[in-house]
Amino acid sequence: xxxxxxxxxxxxxxxxxxxxxxxxxxxxxxxxxxxxxxxxxxxxxxxxxxxxxxxxxxxxxxxxxxxxxxxxxxxxxxxxxxxxxxxxxxxxxxxxxxxxxxxxxxxxxxxxxxxxxxxxxxxxxxxxxxxxxxxxxxxxxxxxxxxxxxxxxxxxxxxxxxxxxxxxxxxxxxxxxxxxxxxxxxxxxxxxxxxxxxxxxxxxxxxxxxxxxxxxxxxxxxxxxxxxxxxxxxxxxxxxxxxxxxxxxxxxxxxxxxxxxxxxxxxxxxxxxxxxxxxxxxxxxxxxxxxxxxxxxxxxxxxxxxxxxxxxxxxxxxxxxxxxxxxxxxxxxxxxxxxxxxxxxxxxx
Length: 349
What we know:
The protein is of the alpha/beta class. It has 11 helices and 12 strands.
């Protein structure tokens, strides 16, 4: 009996090829493990789609309590990436399903994305690109950039990605402020401060925290009003962390200098959204970090989590760690361990 893995179909192009190049799926081509893409691409997985699988590799579709209803076989959902707002975590725990993510895969690519926005905003890169294309060479005098040396750099969320952002920004000789209610000890060179102080004092604010009930609209109109009129906001996390209407108003009225946004609320952004008309914002379709490095690292990390469970071991990056000791999950792991041992004995004989 093989460990069966289902991959959501949004990994494929309409022609049926893997859309993101080599994402390490060959790691799953080992004895005792089989894999296949789900036959349909749906926004929410249905119970019939996941029937018969021990593990799922999920990109975009939602997994809800209804998805998991009546399924005792599924043991792990490996989410491709670090965001898991499309997965019902309590439902996974109740069903004895571990949810793993890939922080080791996105750490460097997302941090590089934040630095990319930082430099593009400070040098007004896209404004100058448009001037050049329009033959408005002399207008460059009206678009002086801002040097980063000696400025204050604030990061909201000093975890896996936030720490890497600070590490990459170190050579710029900036003052580093961090806000993270879960930290008591700051990384070297970082001052942990209250959110209000970070917003008031920072010249660049990067959002790298996860989306939760506590962080939904964390940056609302009142908090955005604390930012300097010369400051830039960069969001490489999740759109709903910022009140988008309030941010748009702040940008329209030049109450902040500009923004770099890779995420929106909702996604995709509406074609008539006023953000699209503003010159002081750089926009990207939730894809600045989309590189071969990012997708290869994410895929290999997710595959390692699936293989760990297939061999009866807990994966490394589990979101709902309490599930690891739940009777349902323990029973599933015991089955995989027993089957793996029996298979090894048969091979030996």
